[in-house]
Amino acid sequence: MPPSAPSHTTRPPTTVLRSRRLSVGLAAVALLVGSVATPTPASARPPTDALKIWVPTGDFASSSFERVAQVAPEPVPTGNDRQLSLATVRGGHASAQLAVASVQDLEELQVQVGPLKPIGKGGAISKAVQVRYPAYIPDDRGGMIADPLREVDRVDVPAGQAQPVWFTLAVPPDARPGTYHTRVTVTAHKVKAVEYDLTVNIADVTLPPVAERDFHLNLWFQPDTVAEQAGLELWSDQHFKAIRPYLEDLASRGQRVINSAIAEDPWPVLWPDGRWRSQTYVPYHSAVDWFHDGEQWSFDFANWDRLVEEGMRAGVGPYIHAFGLLMFRGYQHVVYTDTRTGQRVDQEVSLGGAEWKDAWSAFLVAFEDHVRDRGWLDRTYLAFDERPASEMQVAIDLVREVAPVFVDQIAIAGSASTDAFAQDLSLNYSDVDDWSQEMIDRRRAEGKKTTFYTWSNPAYPNTVTPAAPLGARVLSWLSAQRNLDGYLRWAYNSWPQDPYTDGSYRYRQGDEYLVYPGKDGPVSSIRWELFRDGQEDFALLDQLADRGGQDHPVRVAALAGVEPASAPGPAAYQALLDARAAVVEALAGYPTD
Predict the structure, then answer these.
(1) pLDDT score, position 80
(2) Is there a domain that residue 112 lies in?
């Protein structure tokens, strides 16, 4: 999707690698999820009062909104206040962090949180707070930056370096509203423990289950990279098993679309050497096998069917988007097996030409028959990425001629110029100043979906690694402000060769992925956590609209009080917290269901 100039020229693999990445990738994961400092000699162990702990923003409620620099500040902004507080709703989350440092090496830093005990009647909530330790990875701008969230019991911290501690509060939907209390205990080897009091206020407001929320999330999952990172054969049983945790992670955030490649490498770009190659380190391989005998085309949908079935089983859906009728950036090619020779052929074709029409006419007819037989016809969309209206018209003309059922099942990420073609349209945030609110509102009235997307641009707000974390949270506020249905991002997991050691392949760091590869599934990131928190803000705003109308004065004031593009800082932090608190308070005034 991103049109920015390439920053690397390394040639990506043309097939999935099966062994080299297993040793390189998992070694990098092991390095980051294990202890990172060598044992400290007994004579150099820190004194018992060595722990220096601070709240990054000075306010625990907003502490997740910015990253902690790896080098500890001088002086460390510690204080005597050991009181922390968070506020959330039933079925909701809250993110927060502390930062820890010492003038000497710390061994086995560990932070533990007890069960939430109510002040008053009710039972305790056990395991409500998850603790993770953000890892520092190379920042492609220089230095190191905290992003992947290590799920380990304890970590070692080199002298003079900071270690963020990430807290994720998850409240069950049936929790009793009220005030809860627990202890946060920070320990390290041969160091006096430090304790904090954590107060959690749970409002008498309940978020609906993720699957029932009206937020159209469309993140492009790439199955190929999971196979490449784990050293597995593409489309093998082991590969499909490996992708399940990623699909389940997407479903847990409300992913509404099963994205798929129905043609080989639908995202080619022109590289500096003059050749067209995939924009991602690992190309998208077609989940449909194409065959040609010189006259007739045939197709094997077995792998595509299984990918769709895995997505549905994980809870992703209900929509299926199929990419490839138009390739990215204008270069068109058809990849197939010549059944006369057994050779794999990569043939360049011209858009609208005889060879292009012949191949895609055969495919569309077969594809319609296949999804009809599987009972998926009404949920399957032909999907396109940033193609101009002139090219879209050629594609639509062919669809109308050979498979007209899909004419009203078109999904496009791009510009408003393709409004007339798209039932599902995602607008480029780069063009936000040119968006027509009349068009957005009209499309909603017509029952069409309209979302927006970010890529490397803008620098903020965004989910790219260099952006302040608050930028990932406010994206959902923009959706609510503009009467949009949700958000699209071009890559959930299109990793470079090793995102732990070299964070970008072609575009800005983090543009290509929101999570990291792990041994048993996705490793979350600071960005991914903040985005979830923003989705919950959207759900609360939506809930208030359902209860009190779109023009409820508290909702209107909350939306006006958050400016997504404003510079991150204390004023922006407080504006968002105040806006959310006002919405929650207004919702609490309505009778519970």
Answers:
(1) 73
(2) yes
Q: Is residue 500 part of a domain?
A: no
442 located within any domain: no
Residue carrying structure tokens 């099966």: 18
CATH number of 176's domain: 2.60.40.10
Q: How far is CA 295 from CA 304, 330, 334, 401, 535, in A?
A: 24, 26, 15, 20, 50
Residue 591 CB contacts under 8 Å (≥ 6 apart), including other chains = none
Around 493, how many Cα atoms within 13 Å sit in the side-chain half-sphere? 24
Q: Report the pLDDT value the prediction gives residue 7, as an integer from 0 to 100.
A: 43
Q: Strand order of the sheet with strand 380-385? A: 216-219, 486-489, 449-454, 424-428, 410-414, 380-385, 319-323, 257-261
**Sequence-ordered list of residues with C-beta below 8 angstroms from that of 212, at least 6 positions apart, any chain:** none
539, 207 contact by CB (below 8 A): yes
Asked if residue 253 belongs to a domain, the reply is: no
β-sheet bridge partners, residue 88: 202
Residue 544 CA to residue 554 CA, distance in Å, equals 9
The mean pLDDT of the chain is 92
Q: Residue 434, class by beta-carbon neighbours within 10 Å (0-12 exposed, 13-18 middle, 19+ buried)?
A: exposed
Query: Is a pLDDT exceeding 60 seen at residue 328?
Result: yes
What is the rounded CA–CA span in Å between residue 412 and residue 453?
A: 11
CA dist list (Å): 117 to 49, 124, 170, 201: 29, 4, 14, 11
Overall average pLDDT of the 78-101 stretch: 94
CB 68 within 8 A of CB 165: no
Phi–psi pair at 471, nearest 5 degrees: -60, -30
CA angle 311, 89, 561 (to 5 degrees): 95
pLDDT of 563 > 60? The answer is yes
**pLDDT band for position 16 (cuts 50, 70, 90):** very low
Q: Is 0.85 surpassed by the pTM of this model?
A: yes
Alpha carbon distances (Å) from 69 to 174, 340, 412: 38, 60, 39
pLDDT of residue 17: 33
Q: Map residue 340 onto helix, strand or coil.
A: coil
State how many domains the chain has: 1
